[in-house]
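Escalation from tier 1.

The customer reports that the assembly of two entities below gives different structure tokens on two consecutive runs. Tier 1 could not reproduce it. I'm attaching the input and our single run for tier 2 to review.
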Amino acid sequence: MKTLNIILKGFLLFIIINLLFALLQPGIGHLSAYNTIFPGRERLPFGENSAKAYNLSLFDLDAMFASHEISGDPKQADEFRVILIGDSSVWGTLLKPEETLAGQLNSANISVCGKNVRVYNLGYPTISLTKDVLLLSRGMEYQPDLVIWMTTLEAFPQEKQVASPLVANNEESLLRLASRSGLRVDPNDPAFSRDSFWGSTIIGKQRSLADVFRLQIYGVMWDATGIDQIYPTDYQKAQTDFDTDQKFHEFEPPAMDENLLAFNALETGMSIAGDTPVVIVNEPMLISAGKNSDIRYNFFYPRWAYDQYRAMMIEQSQKNNWVYVDLWDAVPANEFTNSAIHLTPTGEAQLAEKLAPVITAACK
Amino acid sequence: MTIIQILIVATAALFWGLVMRERGRKYFLLIASVLVIFWLQPALPLRGFDFWIPIATLIITVFSWYITAKEETRREKKNWIVIAILAGTVLLLNLTRYLPFDSILTPSRPPQPLTLMLVLAFSGIIYLLVTRLTRFNATLLAISIIGLIAIFLAIKIPALAYWVSYGIRSLTHQSLAEAKAIDLRWLGFSYVAFRIIHTLRDRQMGRLPAVDLSEYVTYVIFFPAFTAGPIDRIERFIKDLRKPSTLGNDELLIAGQRFMVGLFKKFVVADALALIALNDTNALQVRTAGWMWILLYAYAFQIYFDFSGYTDIALGISKFLGIQLPENFSAPYQKPNLTQFWNNWHMTLTQWFRAYFFNPVTRWLRSWNKPMPMVVMIALTQIATMLLIGFWHGVTWNFALWGLWHGIGLFVHNRWNDMTKVRAGEWANTPLRKSLINVSGIVITFNFVALGWIFFALSSTSASMQVFLKLFGMR
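Tier 1 run:
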């Protein structure tokens, strides 16, 4: 009888705790060992081999930002705060934190209006403007003085917008953002990963809770080693020979339909930034000189589509009064690593040199 | 074992303990143990070997029983029933190759039944020949022990394991270029070998109780303790096996609690610590001595929670079935000296080595006409014992260094204790001083053990030395 009582009481308690958790949805992600016990990470958590990278991909935005150094540094009076958003090229695939664009800009010791420029890397490795908007909306909570939004055509197709796992797993945040900002999102998009009531219990959320927990534990290794991704000594270089394929996603020559590109996301981002100046940068890409490079610039883009995109960007910027910098060819082909948008440390330094005057110009 | 495998095994044990109780318990334990050794055996690149290795475990066990059993026990007809059950279970497992889905109980598709029948028939003929042509004698026992040690060395010495794999591959026409030492991962062999050697030695000494084949096989491959011990003694094990199983409320509570604690230790604490515990990769990446110490401590606690967690799980599951396995850990990191640490860390292994190596060797050395000085004898036996314990984990330089580290540590403690016992006793005449000695002993012992884990955690001697230098700020 005693045993049965214990088992029943334990089971009841377990059910009650689960139900309370599902009802109250406590923001576990806010609890973080980063910026207190361990230093904040210099970029958002992302990693496909956590045991070696001491980093992992998770979708809890609270936990992601709580682990970032931006959450630990109160803005100083003499700080000119810049946030960088964008894809893996901003996050810095294959680059150590100090080699990324943010790292290079910080080491350049730039001053703006008598203030010291401090650049925060809020890039995240998937290409989608909607993902950028989601991160920008969070980033705005940290009072930036300037937003630099690095982007490329691959981030524009509508089909790419919710495909980013970070977006797909943050349906609620995104729909809330969409309802107050005018961001165009299909709430019935099958890519969204929805939680049922039971999925909101501790049992249902065990995976994401475990991820938050593991992220905290990896704080030890982050502090102990300074490593937050795997740096292979050997990797496959970005492709430079191509087939004669003219297609770009669903688009075929001669023209891309502007309505099927997510310019709305750019507009939404600009409105979220409000009075904070935003510089949209068309990020550098590999211009290959291999087989069929007269048809394709690189793995991502046929020439016709990319040329049209650049023209569209100029037109949209002029129409909307956006500050737009086109750096598409700013870095030579030999400074790209494993993708047409990933740069070497030297490539990042060259890009930082080009961007430094853009930041300086932000003083009005 | 994965958590799913553990939960399945525990559910089966709990069901038998609660519902079936005494009915067919002996046969359930036998058949379940046989199934589990096939189920847990990892898949091997050598074709069919993940099936042949459990078969070999069973054949070795049956032969060992024959060698150790008394004449009258051997003649009992019920042993033939057990042989039929073993053969039948193996054949049924083999026939799962014809199921339209992937096998659940074997890591890969079992081999052709004809091959299995030939192997079983061949083993049967050998068995009959041995039973008809030989009588119990000490030579046979000695040969058996040597045979087990030879297999142990063949799978534990990487270079030897590689050549064995190479040989098997060339005999079975498999890619020679793919030969690797880990091709021969024989799950549970270390424990199986130690249990069998214990019975062989006890038979030599004439103190082995009479056990039938079913009891013997169940003892050797008892499924809750198959992969991670503890190493029980057969006379204690069969006492529980022969006793009616009474899983009352109190036993259920104790067993359940033990099982849950084990799961928590292993899958929450140890697995979390594993993320930051010292290993070959992070040993070269850590930037400061302070962090190196933290990673080393994380390893020390990870290995403790992992191993003692598995022991708790084994003890909990076996208690569901009415078997009380011996304890393996008793707060080892809270012990004030290395001798006490080893009396409380992997206790059943230490006891095994004490019974079958340390004590006999010490007796033998003492029996010399001109015995060596006591100090030399202590040093020799302690270092040799710890070296063997190191080799039990794997025959590599690092395990040898780990054994040497502890052997020397035990010897130094023994001498220190001899020299300071009286003075320390006089000085520690207040509770505060006693506590001071105790706490400082715990701190020193824990750190000594933790430093020894460097050899255990890393695979190369040079990396171990680098870690030592880093820990003390010399790199």
